[in-house]
Structure formats: C-alpha cells, structure tokens
Give the backbone structure.
Amino acid sequence: MTGVDAPARRALRTLGPGGVVAAIALIAILVAVFAPSVLAPGDPLGIAPAEAFSPPSWAHPFGTDESGRDLYTRVIHGAAASAGIGLAATGIGIAAGLVLGFAGALGPRWLDAAIARVVEVLFALPTLVLALLLVAVLGPGTQASILAIGVATAPGYARILRARVRGVARSDYVAYARHEGAGPLTVFVRHIAPNTLWPLVATATLGVGQAIVWVSALSFLGLGALPPSPEWGAMLNAGRVYITTAWWMTVLPGLAIVTTATVLTVLGRRASGAGAS
C-alpha cells in the first residue's frame, strides 16, 4: 500500500494546496467541455422572454439574459466553445513553433538567420495586436480567430524551442552519442526531441489559458464567435450593453474566463517546475 501511495504523495507535494485546488477545478472544467449536459442539462439557446433579465436565484443561479436564456447553462455549455477554440489555436501555434524552432536550431545558418528575423518581427508585436491585424485580413469569425491566435502565438513557441534545442544539441550526452556513431535521426529521436518537448508542453499549458483570453477578447470585439453563441467572449459582448442594469450578464462569463485561465496558469507553472526539477 505504501508503494502505491508514494507516487500520489509525491504528486500532491509537487502540486501543493493551490495546485490541488486547480486540479479539481480543471476536472470540473473538463466535464463542462466534454459532457456539459451532466452539469447543465438545459438548452443554452432556449429562450424565455417572460424571464428576461432575471437576477441570480435558485431557479437561475447565474440569472438570465435579455432573451430569458439561462446564463448558468450558457456558461457551462460555452466551456466547450471557448476551451475548444483555445486548444485549437494553441495547437496551430505549437505546430508552427515546432517547424520554425527545429528548422532554425538544426538547419543551416542561412535558414536560422532568416527564421530568426521573421520571428523577431512577429515577436515585436503584442500577440493580441498581431491577432487583430490577421483577423482584419482574414475577416471576422471563429475560424479566422483560431488561425489568427495560432499564428500570433507561434513566434513565442518557436523562440523557446530554438533556444532549448540549441542547448541540448551542444550537450555532452549528445556529443557522446555522435562519437559512438549514432546518426542524425537517432540523435534527434533519442536525445534532442525528448529533452526539448517537455518544456514546450508545460508552456503550452500556460498558452491554452492565454489563448482562451485572447479568443474571448476577439469575440468581445465582435471579431470572433457571435451571439447567440454561448462562447464566453460573445456573451461578454452581448452583456456589456446591460452592464449597469444586468451586471451578471458580464461578470459571470468573465469569471469563467478568469477562472479557467488561472487554473491552467497554476497547473502550467507546476508542470514547468516539475520538468525543471
């Protein structure tokens, strides 16, 4: 029993009290993403005009919006939209970062110099500003916001990966493997890739939370998902008109964004610390 419990105790010590709370919250968020009907069996698009602008109550824990839609149901079902968009955008950013990072670190000098210049130009612009420029070119919409956030975050991932790969490629154990006759592919698969991808995974955990915030910001500006979608940013956009009379329409979806981003940030930092140790 002691041997079985030891990994669990080590995990708890690594997470700490804040990490444990974040992990429990993440489980609830994942349930909302993959099985929202378990937490909120209602219809997020169902309207009830007679109950419009109802404040939070036992019947409607988060109140209702201007069409009488239950905000609790919409926030729960909106987790799939917001988190899904954030995950997709992060996936695009990581994929582009992998290509640019590995090509720059392991490729010829001219390719590294060219990629470095491109990354520096893109990295000079704040992520949200770059995403806004891309959406202005691509046009508003969910797909455009996913692509824009993904491309905007790629330079950060590429920069982290390039630095990590260059450090690992110069390490003693890689030099020893080459001295023993290991080919470039073997060195890459057995030594470089495993020792460079973990920090990127930890960074990507942080990146998902940031991507959710940025995608919600685009939706809030009317450039991403549009009402009546239960996406959190779109709900903020719909509720801002009534902020003085129906505060719950803005505050509660906003709390969902902040909570999700905070949970992913806490767990991402814990994962980064565990990888470093």
Observations:
- Residues 184-220 form the longest helix (37 residues).
